[in-house]
Automatic annotation (TrEMBL):
Lineage: Eukaryota, Fungi, Dikarya, Basidiomycota, Ustilaginomycotina
Record-annotated Cas12f1-like TNB domain positions: 59-104
Family matches, as InterPro entries: Cas12f1-like_TNB, Recombinase/Transposase-rel
Entry-linked PANTHER family: PTHR36172, RESOLVASE-RELATED
GO molecular function annotations of the record: DNA binding
Record-given protein name: Cas12f1-like TNB domain-containing protein
Recorded name of the encoding gene: SSCI61070.1
Source superkingdom: Eukaryota
Keywords: DNA-binding
Keyword Flavoprotein: no
Amino acid sequence: MPRMEVRQMIRHRRGQSLARSTRQKLLGWGHIAFLNRLAVKCFDVSVNERYNKARPTVLLVQPEAYTSKTCGTCGELNHSLGSSCRFNCANCCYIADHDYNGAYSMLLKAIKRGSTG
């Protein structure tokens, strides 16, 4: 799961600004509150005896930079992905939905990095 830096997203940049209503919606969604609640739920499942048949649960927090453009099989970057719905790797011929490939790449990066939240 990526950490969303909402405060940085709504800051004014030179020549760019989000509409006031968009900024208010982003601030109201409470991404950090959701992430914290999810972390507590993962902990509950891991230690609470009423979930005695559940597997240990870990929340992986991973930045999502380049995950949609990185091949989940060979790790090659596809800079020409654009807004395409399909990810096609020219290196190993892997084809997948770009959202699936991005989520899978995030998981692989998090496991490689060993990040737990």
